[in-house]
Amino acid sequence: MTAANNLPVDTPPFPLNTTFKYNSDGVIDQAKEYTLSDIIESGIEREITQKDMELAISEANPSTIDWLKTARNLVKYAGADDSYKEVEKYLKKSKLL
Fold first, then answer.
1. Closest CA to 35 of 46, 27, 26, 50
2. CA atoms within 13 A on the CB side of 32
3. What value does the CA radius of gyration of the chain take, rounded to a whole number of Å?
4. pLDDT tens for each residue of 27-40
5. What is the pLDDT of residue 92?
6. Model's pTM, two decimal places?
7. Which of 13, 30, 48, 62 has the most CB within a 10 Å radius?
8. Which domain holds residue 74?
């Protein structure tokens, strides 16, 4: 089975080794919003396209720093749990803790 771009349906439109520095859920939600807005304005139903995804990514803010701030708080206040030991090492090495 192939999609309109002649790629198999289960093939993502980006390399499998792509590292996303954005919150992918937020990007996908924004791409859906662009698509829905276009559908409402045009009255023509369509699928989310690569162009929608690229627009959403171009307007997204990286979430790495926010995640590190949350992780820092977990390391500082979570107690003796070893779940974040590696994160704690990284934060100390990077002078973020």
1. 46
2. 6
3. 19
4. 889 999 999 999 99
5. 85
6. 0.48
7. 30
8. 63-97
Question: Mind giving me the DSSP string for 5-19?
Answer: TSSBTTS-SS-TT--
In the predicted structure, residue 13 carries a pLDDT above the cut 70? no
pLDDT reported for residue 47: 94
- Classify 2 as helix, strand or coil: strand
Residues 36 and 75 in one domain: no
CB count in 10 Å sphere of residue 30: 19
Give residue-wise pLDDT tens across range 49-94: 999 999 998 888 777 778 888 888 888 887 666 777 888 888 888 8
Termini Cα distance of the chain: 50
Is 10 found in the same domain as 37? yes
Same domain, 75 and 93: yes
Contact 75, 87 (CB under 8 A): yes
* C-alpha 77, offset from chain centre: 27
